[in-house]
Amino acid sequence: MYRGMKVSVVIPCYNEEEGVRHVIRSLPKSVDEIVVVNNNSTDRTAEVAAALGARVVPEKRKGYGAAYKTGLPAVTGDITVTLDGDGSYPTEQIEEVIAYLLDNGIDFVSGSRFPLQNPEAMTFSNKLGNMVLTVSMLLLYGRGIKDSQSGMWVYRTRVYPLMKLTSDGMPFSEEIKIEAIRHKQIRFGEYHVKYHQRIGEVKLEKWRDGFRNLFFLLKKRFQ
């Protein structure tokens, strides 16, 4: 526990055998529950995660959002933390971000990777795509944030049911921030986090996923 709060970590995984091993082993002792969503992995991701003490939840539907829509409701903690299974988000900052949330009376904190501490951790095309999507989010929703695509979120578990989340794919990351920002009962904030070079194979299809994210921003705004 951290300051009397039970902490749950949710990690969606598709073939992240090496990365998830690193992530779980590096979690702080204050983490009480680890939920790994096995999204049709063909390697030993599920076995490795279970052997290291995680509760493995299967999700047959492909997609980042589908995995999270199965994993996030499964937690039992007071605080939910999300991380990618590739080791790119800083487990060493989990307690720091939770403290920021609690000390400032915030309900949902999104970890902002920018400015990058390690410029080599992200390719130029990914930086450019993130900038375009973040600016698009500002223009469409009137709220400026630094990193619309971050996959590290720390929030009070009780606010999750307040959000109407529809995406089964990569747009889920921007959608959950939009929902948190727009909901009157959720106080939203950002906190700067480190971003590490990923472990294992890159699975993001940059152009396809980028255009899907942009289209989703437009569709959600004018629905």
Task: Report on this structure.
With 223 residues, this protein is an alpha/beta fold. 36% of the residues lie in helices and 17% in strands. The protein has a single domain (7-222), classed as Spore Coat Polysaccharide Biosynthesis Protein SpsA, Chain A (Alpha-Beta Complex). The chain has 7 helices and 7 strands; from the N terminus they run E-H-E-H-E-H-E-H-E-H-E-H-E-H. It has a 7-stranded mixed beta sheet with strand order 3-2-1-4-6-5-7, with helices on both faces. Strand 2 (31-38), helix 2 and strand 3 (55-58) form a beta-alpha-beta unit. Helix 1 (17-25) packs parallel to helix 2 and helix 5 (124-141) packs parallel to helix 7. The chain is globular, with a radius of gyration of 16 Å. The model has no long low-confidence stretch (mean pLDDT 94).
Q: Please write the CATH class name.
A: Alpha Beta
The CATH topology label is Spore Coat Polysaccharide Biosynthesis Protein SpsA, Chain A
Query: Could you describe the largest sheet, including whether it forms a barrel?
Result: 7 strands, mixed
Cα end-to-end separation: 41 Å
> What is the CATH architecture assignment?
Alpha-Beta Complex
CATH superfamily: Spore Coat Polysaccharide Biosynthesis Protein SpsA, Chain A
Which outline best applies?
A: globular
Number of domains: 1
Radius of gyration: 16 Å
Helical element count?
7
Beta percentage is 15-25%
Low-pLDDT residue spans: none
Spatial strand order of the main sheet: 3-2-1-4-6-5-7
> Could you give the order of the helices and strands?
EHEHEHEHEHEHEH
Mean pLDDT over the full residue set: 94
What structural category do the secondary elements indicate? alpha/beta
Helix content: 25-40%
- Strand tally is 7
